[in-house]
Design a protein that fits this description.
single chain; alpha/beta; Spore Coat Polysaccharide Biosynthesis Protein SpsA, Chain A; two-stranded antiparallel sheet; 13 strands
Amino acid sequence: MSSHAITKAVIPAAGLGTRFLPATKSQPKEMLPIVDKPAIQYVIEEAVRAGLTDILVVTGRGKRAIEDHFDRNFELEYYLEQQSKTDLLREVQLTSEMADIHYIRQRDPLGLGHAVSVAREHVGNEPFAVLLGDDIMVDDSKLLLSMIDIHARYGRSALALKKVPHESISSYGCVEPEPVHDGLVQVRSIVEKPKPEDAPSDLAVIGRYVFTPEIFDALDRIQPGAGGELQLTDAISLLLETQTVYGCVFESGRYDIGQKIDFLRANVELALDRPDLGPEVAEFLVQLVKDRGLI
Ligand code: G1P
């Protein structure tokens, strides 16, 4: 069993973002702002808060803006300094200092399983986390920390699981669970995007994973699965042949920003939570609801 402390996170960010066209025609979907911060920055901050400071972003074509965002921008820093905009200057500098961020290209978009497999050399023979950028967690990294904790305790992989409406299960990886204790299950089996009538449960895999390095051997063995893609879920299914995999069940704090409605909800709710914006946004929403006769 490996009890290696986890310091590495892999963030697949090679998707085309077709659901957000035309906004994503010439910019990565990971750079779409939630209030005033790009979505991927929330994900990296979540990882860093959980002690994962070595971040590998798996990118593809047209993703240069992500690298620029986490790099120094001397011209901008100089300008902000000249204008005495100290708070903004600090904010801009922090984005380039928050973690040790590496990039690798997934040359062909062959699926999530393939995207994770290109991280093999960087990760080496260590446990690591995978965070998907479409899921934004607003929970002070509680979920990720609990998964890291499960790995520390059992030396095994852990998946984030959430109960979803039965008819939605076909959008997710779905597990057959065996309860261990409150909030923790053992994964008996896993299947990618089942039809509701074939789903073993309503527990969906949400985009947070902690893996033992053996997942890479499993990734080497998978064949194209659901949607003709190399699926991470199928590699987890192979991993289950030799290792126990746990599931951490959580309820709140997640926005699926790959869905337009959740993207908008995240913007509104996170703006409401901000001391500098919240009161004004609340007032605006109340007025809007009244003016439009929405309730
Ligand atoms: C991916 C995974 C799926 C998981 C989901 C979580 O699907 O393949 O197992 O449940 O992320 O968001 P995608 O959303 O890329 O179709």
